[in-house]
Amino acid sequence: MERLKKITELVNRSLNWVAGIGLVAMLALTFADVIAVKAFKSPIPGAIEMVSFLSVVVIAFAIAYTLQLKGHIQVEFFVSRLPVRIRSVIGILVSAAGIVLFALLAWRSYEYARVLQLSGEVSMTQRIPFYPFVYAIAFCCIPVCLQLVVELLDFCGRLVKR
Questions:
Q1: What is the count of structural domains for the chain?
Q2: CB-CB contact of 133 with 22 (8 Å)
Q3: CB under 8 Å, gap of 24 or more: what pairs does 82-85 form?
Q4: pLDDT tens for residues 84-127?
Q5: What is the per-residue pLDDT for 74?
Q6: How do the residues of the chain divide into helix, strand and coil, expressed in percent and rounded to 5?
Q7: Which of 23, 82, 139, 162 falls between 20 and 30 A from 42, CA-CA?
Q8: C-alpha–C-alpha distance, residues 132 and 98, integer Å
Q9: Are the C-beta atoms of residues 57 and 133 closer than 8 Å to each other?
Q10: Partner residues linked to 17 by β-bridges
Q11: What predicted TM-score, i.e. pTM, was given to this entire model?
Q12: Phi then psi for 17, rounded to 5 degrees?
């Protein structure tokens, strides 16, 4: 269990670095575009498109690490008042549902990326292909599933201890 947890944490941190690089690139591109508009009266062609693609990278690559840090919004007002055993059961159900959801998202995103790749779908201005970004979404769902498995096992451990 500890080994799986350490591997998952390492993968999540690595992916978060990619998200951080994407965020810095978004910031730099937006800054350069604003300067280009103000100084040269001409925006960077396709800057909005590129920022949109970079936002996909930032969001997809940061999901698992955010989940690891418990940074997603949770409504615990009622659940926190329940006994530990019931909280563990609810945690198991939520984690299992999340695993199913992200496994389906990975699978369907992969299939959609394949369709986009075969059809040659590209963006309008810069002609950037869509499929690598959809493949990235599919790939990033796998560490989310691993993190949810770690949480599921943790909740099962809590349930057995009580």
A1: 1
A2: no
A3: 84/158, 84/162, 85/159, 85/162
A4: 899 999 999 999 999 999 999 999 999 999 999 999 999 999 99
A5: 74
A6: 80, 0, 20
A7: 23
A8: 24
A9: yes
A10: none
A11: 0.90
A12: -65, -40
Torsion of CA 80, 85, 86, 92, to 10 degrees: 100
Tokens at 126, concatenated: 């810069």
pLDDT of residue 162: 63
Distance CA 48, CA 141 (A): 26
Domain that holds residue 42: 2-161
Among left, alpha and beta (phi > 0; psi -120 to 50; other), residue 46 is left
Query: Residue 122's closest CA among 53, 58, 61?
Result: 53
Number of H helices, E strands in the chain: 4, 0
Sorted by sequence, the CB contacts under 8 Å of residue 19 that are 6+ apart come out as 57, 58, 59, 60, 61, 62, 65
Query: What is the rounded average pLDDT for all residues in the chain?
Result: 94
Q: Which amino acid is at 40?
A: F
Residue in the block written with tokens 């950037």: 128
